[in-house]
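In the previous chapter we treated chains in isolation. Here, by contrast, the input contains two separate entities that must be folded as one system, with a combined length of 744 residues.
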Amino acid sequence: MTSGLGATGLLTPLFIGDVLGGLDSIGVPVTQLLQMADSIAFIILAAIGLTVIFGMMGVINLAHGEFIMMGAYITTLSVNVVGLPLPVAMILGALGTAAFGAIIERTIVRRLYGRLLDSMIVTFGLGLILTQGTRIIFGNSLQSIGTPFGNVPGYTYSAYRVLLLFAAIAVLGGAYLVFTRTEFGIQARATIQDAETARTMGVDTDRMYTVTFAIGSGLAGLTGALYAPSATIVPGMGQSFLVESFVTVVTGGSTVLLGTTLAGGVLGTIDAIFSNLYGNFIGQIALLITAIIVIRLLPDGLTGLAHTIRDKLGERQ
Amino acid sequence: MSDNHVSRRSVLATGAAGVGAALAGCSGGGGGGDSGSDTIKIGVLEDRSGNFSLVGTPKWRASKLAIEEINDNGGIMGQQIELFDPDPQSDNQRYQQLTERLIQQEDVDALWAGYSSATREAIRPIIDREDQLYFYTTQYEGGVADKNVFCMGSTARQQLGSVVPYMIENFGTDIYTIAADYNFGQLSADWVKVIAQENGASVNNEEFIPLSNQNFGSTISNIQEADPDFVMAILVGNNHSSFWNQRTSAGLDIPMGTSTVMAQSYQHKRLEAPALADVYGGFNYMEEIPTDRNEDYVSRYYDRFPDAGYANQESVNNYFSMYMYKDAVEAAGTTDQQAVREELEGGMEVTGDQSPEGDISLQGPVHHMTHNMRVMKCDADHNITVEDERMIPEQFLSETVGIDLSGEDSELERQFTPTEYYDAAGE
C-alpha cells in the first residue's frame, strides 16, 4: 500500500485490538458497533454535499451522485496516473470538484434559483452528461486503488471503513464552524435567507451563491475521494449514494447540519442493526421505512422535533 | 443476466423510448425470411454505453471481428455480411424499439442481442411474434426453450456444475452463498443447492444482496461468524465489485467460488491485487486460457481493437456463434430462417480457430451449447490458472425437463426454472 495514511493506522493496532477484545469479553457487541460506525459514516458522507446544495440553497441537485463520482475519479487518477500519495489525491478530489461546482454555478445553476422543478431537469441532464462524458473519456472502469489499513485488529472488518466515521464527524464539524462562526458563513446564510436584504447590507450575494455551491460540490467530491479506495470506480458509481443522500436530507429537516447528524445517526443505526441481523436487503428496507415514519410523524424532520423540544424547555425556564 | 432495477434515468428514458417504439411500430413490414438481396443482413445489439457497456462492448467487438474476418475471406456463400449495430445503451425499452426496427425495416437474417436476462425477456415476445432467428450469447440462469432462440452462453448449471463440485472436493461441504437479489442470482443460488446436494454438501447460509448495495461490512462479518468451508459469491454488477476490496481489507480469507466474477467484467484486471486472491470461477472462457488457439485469438482481438480492456467470456460466445451461423447457412444453402434453424437443430460442431475455448458443439434439440468448462483460479498476484477442465453439456432442458425443439416441442416459447423440478431448489 503506497498510502501515506498507512503510518497512522500502524500506531497502535495491538492497543486497539486489546481494547476491543476487552469490550467484547464484557458483552459489548463490537461487530455491531463497527457496522454501525460504517453505516453512519456512509449515510452522513453521502448526504453532506447535498445538505448544503439542497438543504441550504434549495437546489435539487440530481447530479449529486456524479459530483461524488468526480471526486472519486480525480482521486483515483491522481494516485494511479500521477502517483500522488493518497491523502493529497483526496484533497485534490475535493478541490477539483469544488472548482467544477463553481463553474457550474456561474454558468448554469445561477439561472435556476427559485425554480425547483427546472433545477431538477437541468441537474438531471448534467448528471447524464457527466456519466457518459466520463465513460467516453476514461472508459468503462478505472483500475481501483486498494483500501489502506487492513482489518480492525481481531475482527473481520475493514478498519478504513470504520475510520470514515471520524472523517464524517470532522467534515460535519468543519462545515458547522464555517457556516456559523465565520463571517463568510453568516453572509452566506443571510444571502440564502433573504438575498435582497443581504445585498442592501453590502453582501456580495453573487459571490456567496457561487462559493456556497462550490463548498457543497467540494464536500460531495470529498465523499467520492474518501470512498475511492473502497468502491469500484465506474462512471455510474454516484447512483449508489443518491437514495441515502436525499433520504437523509429530507429526514433531517430544516436545520441542515444538525439534521444530517441526527438523521445519519438514526438511519445508520437502524441500517446497521437490521443488516447485521437479517442481511443488507432488510437493512435497506428498515432504513426507508424509518424515513417514512419520521416524515409522517415529524413533517419538519428530526430537527423540527429538536426545535420543539428546545422551545418546550425554554418555556419551562 | 444482470440488473434490472429501475433508476430515475430509466424511468425518464422509458417515456422517450416508448414514443420511439410507437413510431417504429407504424412502419410495418413483414418479418424475417430470405430477402433475396446480395448481402446477408445481420443485426448486433450490444451495449456500448450505459450500465452494461463494460461487458457489452467486448461482445460487440467480437461480433465485429468475426464479421470482418468472414467478409475478408469471401463472406457467406460469396455474399458479404452487412452489419446493423445501433447502440441500445443498456436500456430495455430501446432494445425493444431497435429489435422491431432491425426486424421490420432492415429485415435482418439473424439477430444477436442483449446482455442481461431482463433484456432477453424484454425482446423475446417481439422475436417470437416475428419468428426471428435470434442468438443470445450471455451466460445465464438457463431453461429458455424457445423455437427462435439459440442460447450460446453457458448456463448456471454448466458453470456451477463445473466449480461447485471442485470446491466441495477441495475445501469441504459447508457452503455459504451470497447472490445478487434478482432473477438470475436467485436461480443460480437454487442451482448451488441442487449441485451441493448431488455432491453430498449443503448450503447452510444464504444472503441475497440488492444490486444497488455496495457496502458489505455486515455480509463479511456474517460470513466470518458462520465460518463456512467456502463461499459461493454470485455477485453481479459494478456495485457488487466493491465486495472484493472490502473483503480483502477486512481480512476475510475463506476461499470463494463464483460463476459471475472475473470472466465477464474482469475484476482481476481492474481491482488492485490481492482483492481476488483465492477466487475460483467456473467458466467456458477467460482470455488467459493457455492454449495456442486461444492465444492466437486474443492477439487477433487486440490487433483489431488495441484499446480493448479484456476479451470476456461473453465476447467469445459472440465470436464462435457468428461462425456457427455461417456454417449453418452454407449447409442449408440459404438464409431462409426456418431452413437455417432446422440445420442448426441437426447439431453443429464448432472447431479450430472459430472456437477459442476449444472444440465445442451445439445440442440442436435444446438450442444450447456443450461447453468446454474450466475451473479458473485467481492467485494473490491476480494470475489466472486452469485448475480443472471438462466438457459439460446442457443438462436441465435436455435431460431433466426432456425438451426436443426439433420435434415434439417445435412451437415452444418459454423458460423453465429449477424450482419446478428439484425439491432442493427454492427451499
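Residues 289 and 295 of chain B are 8 Å apart (CA to CA). DSSP finds 14 helices and 16 strands in chain B. Compare these points with the single-chain example from earlier in the chapter.
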